[in-house]
Amino acid sequence: MSQARKTSLQGKLIDSPFDDYIILLPCLCVQDSPENPSPCLDQTKILIPKAYLQSEPIITKRSAQSGESLYQVELQPNAEVLLEETRVVSAKSVTDQVMRGSGFTLPDSDIIDIVKKILDSLKTPPTFPVPETPVPTINTTRSTSDPH
């Protein structure tokens, strides 16, 4: 039996701000019918380097629940993609996970202080450098001697 020579993904294509990547929102199609639209994972994005595409994305007969057409993307078997997932979690759980993953351990009180400092810094508006030379102003008042 021969090994698969490609990997296929299916989903909605969205505009990519990157020239070398396409972005796909994966969709889960369980029935092979245009009458049964596929639910898509709008909180998950797959960034695919165009260098790993075996061909241009192909439009399919399937559609998302939103009515948009779905695309089939064929990738090389060694393709590496960036998977971006968005989910709501508590700040403490993220901090705990980062600390566990790095091998560091901090007392809960220190973690809470760090999170408070981060949140406080987000409340402070950013500062911008003041130019050393004054910015020229334009006089917008009309002269009284101007007949117009």
Q: Topology, please?
A:
Layout: E1 7-14, E2 21-26, E3 44-49, E4 58-63, E5 69-75, E6 82-85, H1 91-102, H2 108-123
Antiparallel strand pairs: 1-2, 1-5, 2-3, 3-6, 4-5
Can you give a write-up of this model?
By secondary structure, the protein is an alpha+beta fold. The protein is built from two helices and six strands. The model has no long low-confidence stretch (mean pLDDT 75). The protein has a six-stranded antiparallel sheet with strand order 4-5-1-2-3-6, with no helix packed on it. The longest helix has 16 residues, at 108-123.
Query: Which percent range fits the helix content?
Result: 10-25%
Would you tell me the structural class of the helices and strands? alpha+beta
Q: Give the mean pLDDT.
A: 75
The rounded Rg comes to 26 Å
Order of helices and strands: EEEEEEHH
Spatial ordering of strands, largest sheet? 4-5-1-2-3-6
Shape: elongated
Short synopsis of the structure:
By secondary structure, this protein is an alpha+beta fold.
Summary tags:
19% helix; elongated; alpha+beta; 148 residues; 2 domains; six-stranded antiparallel β-sheet; 6 strands; 2 helices
